[in-house]
Amino acid sequence: MEPDLFTAAAEDRQEREPGNSPLAVRMRPRVLDEVVGQGHLLKQGAPLRRLVGEGSGGPAGQSSVILWGPPGTGKTTLAYVVSKATNKRFVELSAITAGVKEVRAVIESARRQSGGYDRETVLFLDEIHRFSKAQQDSLLPAVENRWVTLIAATTENPYFSIISPLLSRSLLLTLEPLTDEDLRGVLHRALTHERGLGGAVTLPGDAEAHLLRIAGGDARRALTALEAGAGSAIAKGEEEITLSTLEEAVDRAAVTYDRDGDQHYDVASALIKSIRGSDVDATLHYLARMIEAGEDPRFIARRLMISASEDVGMADPTALQTAVAAAQAVALIGFPEARIILSQAAIALALAPKSNAAYLAIDAALADVRKGLAGPVPPHLRDGHYKGAAKLGHAQGYQYPHDLPGAIAAQQYAPDEIHGRRYYEPTRYGAEARYADVLDRVRERLAGE
After folding, report:
1. What domains, with CATH codes, occur in the chain?
2. What is the 3-state secondary structure (H, E, C) of the chain?
3. What is the pTM of this model?
4. Average pLDDT of the chain?
């Protein structure tokens, strides 16, 4: 399709937003003040305000923008609003389907029009992280010469997925997940606004709660589900979208789960106790309930990291590495793919050998410190690098372990008050059995035996 024709079609679609367009398209904000959430980007004087000409100075001389955030947080919406506010042509491409050829055609058309003092062009490039380095390189001349205002959207960390030259020439704006309150406002507006459902149906509290759960912070998903439920209710001649009607429409059962109440803590507790008990199937059941209920994947990942140390510990020291890697991956990817990563980590923890020795050890040490068993540091362990330390006897008589066989020096490390106390008592499970053998030998050497 020729760029001019594509642009015209896109602008027609956005201007008219006919009644047969999806609800999410019809309800797309037209001005910044209609945008829900992202208060940090929309407050007075923020870069996004300056980008559309509100305030003075502009966004530090940068005209191109990279929008980074989870799906459904308004990246496409913000690009469209910027083009409307600045009266620029709006061209939308997706890195999934477009290549260098399509991008160059848009850029060439924009360059001709800018040279003829016609309207400038906003190029919205969705999923830019799917472009290769060479494909991203092709955007640089247009960005440098301001032939287009590039607004690129990505759900992945741009510091890993976007080339440095493009990042340095663009303003990076981070979008936050929408809260339930944000989504509630989106739903209420769609139910009553003339561009939406115009009051044709109502949404009772239990159905609204289910919608918020399945939306998972994604406004587009929330509006799509609302539209499906409304269509089903209207077809039945009903004036409200009941929970059962909504479930049928979106083909997903409502999970009994209150993220702010007892169910939140009960299910999270059951997940951790199932991991501790090595029941992998129960673990996956509770994990699925949390995911289906719209639980924040970062919360689940944090619980898995705690379990990796508390319940697996030194029986498999790699368990914590697995949990941390899962948490990092979840933060970069988000749902729906994050479910696979959480599943892998939860299965690994459930099947790992278990030891709470590290957990008991630190609690025992803390208990002694709180009792006041925290005597002076032995003089030979004190800092001896400052002038006058030698006169105080600091660091005198210290034995450097690396100069001795086995790199172990038979000297006292603990204060007198707790000398000889043992906090870490390793089990014989998994890899911890090896540490138990090592610890026995080390303690003998430290005691000079």
Report:
1. 3-174 (3.40.50.300), 180-250 (1.10.8.60), 281-351 (1.20.272.10), 357-446 (1.10.3710.10)
2. CCHHHHHHHHHHHHHHCCCCCCHHHHCCCCCHHHCCCCHHHHCCCCHHHHHCCCCCCCCCCCCEEEEECCCCCCHHHHHHHHHHHCCCEEEEEECCCCCHHHHHHHHHHHHHHHHCCCCCEEEEEECHHHCCHHHHHCCHHHHHCCCEEEEEEECCCHHHHCCHHHHHCEEEEECCCCCHHHHHHHHHHHHHCCCCCCCCCECCHHHHHHHHHHHCCCHHHHHHHHHHHHHHHHHHCCCECCHHHHHHHHCCCCCCCCCCCHHHHHHHHHHHHHHHCCCHHHHHHHHHHHHHCCCCHHHHHHHHHHHHHHHHHHHCCHHHHHHHHHHHHHHHHCCCCHHHHHHHHHHHHHHCCCCCHHHHHHHHHHHHHHCCCCCCCCHHHCCCCCCCCCCCCCCCCCCCHHHCHHHCCCCCCCCHHHCCCCCCCCCCCCCHHHHHHHHHHHHHHHCCC
3. 0.52
4. 82
